[in-house]
Amino acid sequence: MERDDIIEYSLDAHHSEEQGVTIRKKIWKVTLILSIITAVEVLLGAFIKQGSDLWLTVKVSFIIMTIFKAAYIVMVFMHLGDERKALKWVILLPYTIFILYLMFIGLTEGNAVGLKM
Amino acid sequence: MAGHASKQIDGKTLWGGKISPFSASYGKLMMWFFLVSDALTFGGLLVAYGYARYSYQGMWPIGEETFEALPLLGNGYPLAYVALMTFILIISSVTMVLAVEAGHRMDKKGVVKWMLWTIIGGFFFLGSQAWEWGHFIHGTEFGKVKLSDGSSAIVKGEFGHIESFEVITPGAHSPAQGELITNENIHKSEKDLMHAFQHAAVTGNLSGTSATDLIITLHDGTVAKVNRKADENLELLIKEAGTKYAVSLPSDVSTRVAGDEAEALYYEALTQGKVIYGANLSENEYGPSQYGQFFFFITGFHGFHVFSGVIINIIIFFGVLKGIYHARGHYEMVEKTGLYWHFVDLVWVFVFTFFYLI
């Protein structure tokens, strides 16, 4: 019986030598990107002091760079980018919604407690 | 890298309901669900950290001020060591993804090689973390002092090296009056000069009026004069405001206390026993006690994940060596442990940013 409801299945994720070459190239590219981002983060952290005029910009860029790094790790290293779209959303969406809410409430309340101390 | 060929699925790989949700195998999907729940735990911890940090405002320690030491080289290298740890973990993540890639080509030798490198990287990270914990617990040579106006301050600069203790009143284990106690002949209960000095400072057995005129009382009752070099560039960074001093701004060096004033304040506090060295769960020299607790819990919980990741990797590594997965026709087990290992790296990326950088 031929099944038409399943298009692909990750257990059969074999690839040829030639495909392997392209995939490895991508892996090394991502490695380079991750290392550069980390180096930039460390330099910014070491040379721009907290509370200086630039600090807010640096802080925001830290968060953006971290999200970039996380995206590369999750999408390329963990192969979530190659999974089905539905699976991607099932994993990412509930987590993102919950954690954004938690961050909002945690930091707001922390600030409120701080003002009273 | 999921295969793109349409393929009929045999009965063994289908789930009980005769279908594979999301075209993923049961094990892989469950690993993802586990990772989401684990990510919520770490997310919760980091948000709790943010809550504490926001409620303490300027009193909270700053990453580049706290973590600036390197093994053998000493202080003055802000964030360098954590950057190295981050790099080690990223590289071990890369070797893991290369192992998975080799598995997709059914290249057993490749899987063995890259998994071995991953395990080595994991051990390196664990070792680095052990050193960092040791350094954090042990603390700096200056410690944190509570000043006479009620403020508290961390101290930067070069601590003047202690050369010897000159005996004034001999005790049970000391040499005669006027002779020197050095690191060579100090009684083993005192470990070394620095240890004896810090212990005396904490227990209130250090007296004197200035940096060059300190009198120490050892365990055995020996009273001795402390011979040491002068401190260099001693600066006090006020972390908790008192009646006289306000909290120092990290971006403004002029808000620190420096020079003779700093030296007088520091040694006044030291001779009154108002000093904390290193860290434990109830107090630490870096900031509020919660800071130390969060450090131990977050990096410890992450380190525990790395440790279990290494163990799981080793188990799978032996499976690869024995050819279990090769016989199955696929290396999905390597892919699943890979997911866990990458997750550990992912968590560290966030810990690095929110604990050390911001």
Task: Explain this structure.
The complex is a heterodimer of chains A (117) and B (358). Chain A has two domains: 20-82; 84-117. Helix content of chain A is 74%, strand content 0%. Chain A is built from three helices and no strands. Chain A has helices at 17-47, 55-77, 85-116. Chain B is α+β, with helices and mostly antiparallel strands. Chain B has two domains: 21-139 and 290-357, Four Helix Bundle (Hemerythrin (Met), subunit A); 144-276, no CATH class. Chain B has helices spanning 26-56, 63-66, 80-104, 108-138, 193-202, 259-271, 289-322, 324-328, 332-357; strands at residues 144-146, 152-158, 162-169, 180-181, 206-210, 213-217, 223-228, 232-240, 257-258, 275-276. In chain B, strand 5 (206-210) and strand 6 (213-217) form a beta hairpin. In chain B, helix 3 (80-104) runs antiparallel to helix 9 (332-357). The longest helix of chain B has 34 residues, at 289-322. Chain B is elongated. The interface between A and B is large, with 71 and 76 residues.
Overall structural domain count of chain B: 2
The parts of chain A where pLDDT drops under 50 for at least 5 residues are 3-10
Shape of chain B: elongated
Largest sheet of chain B: 5 strands, antiparallel
Number of domains of chain A: 2
Uncertain spans of chain B, ≥5 residues at pLDDT below 50? 1-6
List the defining traits of the structure above.
heterodimer, A: 117 residues, mainly alpha, 2 domains, B: 358 residues, alpha+beta, Four Helix Bundle (Hemerythrin (Met), subunit A), five-stranded antiparallel beta sheet, 10 strands, 50% helix, elongated, disordered N terminus
